[in-house]
Amino acid sequence: MQRELLEKQLREQKIELVRAMYVGPDGITRGKAFRPDDLEMILESGIGLTQAQMSVTVFDHLPPLSQYQPVGEVRIRPDVDTFQVLPYLPGHARMLADVETREGAAWELCPRNLLKNFLNKLSAQGMQMQAAFENEFTLLEQTESGWEPVDQLNCFSSAAMDLASPFILPLISALEQQGIKVEKYYPEAGPGQQEIPIRHQAGLLAADQQVIFKETVRGVAQANGYRVSFMPKISPAFAGNGCHIHFSLWNENQNLFYDPTGEFLLSQTARQFMGGILKHLPALMALTAPTTNSYKRFVERCWSSSYTCWGPDNREATVRAASGFQGQEAATINLEYRPCDPTCNPYLALSALICAGLDGIENQLDPGDPLLTDPALLTSEEQHSLGLNAYPLDLESALSALEQNSVLLSGFGESRINDYLTMKRAEIALIQSLGDDGERQAYEFRF
Ligand code: GLU
Ligand code: MG
To answer: Which residues contact 120 (CB under 8 A, 6 or more apart)?
Structure first.
């Protein structure tokens, strides 16, 4: 955004605080706010942050074994192109930020910078990514017994739409005022569960949009007396909150996932990209299903997917090859990665998909036969003969797979992965030490 336009908005909208926000490897959107008078200086030199802040757990606990300790500083450097006035919070504006060294180089743990690097790798091969994160979340209202889901009604129910309407309409308005195009709205299967699919965006903007989406959902809820939870599995009895990632690769105006002669109209590029995802799957999940609670979501026949496989419009598959709109397949065919939830850091999640997918393309990996049925309806012999593997049962299993995955280790850098493993393992230990309530404390409202 042009500087003059930005300053005009600051004045006219009477902005008192501008937030400079980054998403840490723990998935929490954090940052510092500054006074508009300091804009020039902050854009120039950023805001100080202790190096170790990128290594803390969701409980703000710095693992003693972390490579970064509270000595040394990096800078939160806001990206002026992401400036937005917050439509739901008068007097506040926001910019998304990179984290850089004092000298202005990318900080080695900055997730946003990692994604920029992977997008550059794609574009060096003539490919651009379009992606959209498809969040589910639970809308809660205050009752005498605490915060409870706003409804106990049905998936896509008109009655549930009525109940959520005082929240949904201001939410749609706030999203669209920030340039996010809302495509649909519907109540989902769980109590109080909502879903608002949004238009895909190119590259970095897709991940930025995910941050803005969640910030706006939470902010509009609070402004209207509600709360929201992005926790993947609030209760074993409820449907999980997923965050499927829809994506496609493009060269200019050509959808590289589409081939009119391919099976299910899928190109070799789409098949190989899926081959990479399926090959690296348990490791990928350490980054796309990154909390202890994430693994409770993977229940058979809950449409969260729970076996490593792909299939055309198969909502129990890891990758659903989405057939797109009838007659417009060339423009709308895309892949939908399902073992992702809204506690992920979107920059790390997209980076992980690209890292695995590029490996698939480079090594011409085959994704195997498509699964045309619900894997839960197969006998274990049938599952075995089709090469289906059940997902890891817990976060530690996914972390161990990540630790041993040479493609992700070299793509992300060993230092970043080691820091992540240390942080996540400390998070697991803390949650376990808190007993039954640990997960709820960790994840219910922090994301
Ligand atoms: N709630 C499901 C999940 O955990 C997804 C339902 C759907 O297909 O939208 O991923
Ligand atoms: Mg859904």
So the answer is: none
| Ligand approaching nearest to the C-alpha of 190 | 1
Span 283-290, mean pLDDT? 98
Residue type, 196: I
Give strand ranges (E) for 154-267: 186-187, 193-195, 201-202, 226-229, 243-251, 254-255
The separation between the first and the last C-alpha atoms of the chain, rounded to the nearest angstrom, is 28
Q: Is the CB of 136 under 6 A from ligand 1?
A: yes
Tokens of 195: 């879903």
Residues with CB under 5 A from ligand 2 (ion): 195
Q: What band does 3 get if pLDDT is binned at 50, 70 and 90?
A: confident
Q: Record the pTM.
A: 0.98
Query: Whose Cα sits closest to atom 7 in ligand 1?
Result: 303
Judge if the beta carbon of residue 440 lies within 6 A of ligand 1: no
Question: How far is residue 283's CA from residue 413's CA, in Å, rounded to a whole number?
Answer: 14
Is the pLDDT at 112 greater than 80, yes or no? yes
Gap from CA of 126 to ligand 1 centroid (Å) = 33
Q: If you average pLDDT over residues 416-420, what whole number do you get?
A: 97
Nearest to 175 by CA among 131, 225, 209: 209
Name residue 106's beta-bridge partners.
Answer: 100
Instruction: Answer whether 297 contacts ligand 1 (Cβ < 6 A).
Output: yes
- Of ligand 1's listed atoms, the one at least distance from the Cα of 239 is 1
CB-based contact 313:333 (threshold 8 Å): no
For residue 270, the number of C-alpha atoms closer than 13 Å in the C-beta half-sphere is: 31
Of all protein residues, the one whose alpha carbon is nearest to atom 8 of ligand 1 is 303
Q: Using a 6 Å cutoff on CB, does residue 316 contact ligand 1?
A: no
Lookup: tokens for 234? 């609030």
Give the domains, in start order, of the chain with CATH numbers: 3-109 (3.10.20.70), 117-412 (3.30.590.10)
Q: Would you call 254 helix, strand, or coil by DSSP?
A: strand
Helix, coil or strand: residue 170 = helix
**Longest C-alpha distance within the chain, in Å?**
68
Nearest in space to 343 (alpha carbons), one of 393, 295, 306: 295
Ligand nearest to the CA of 244: 1
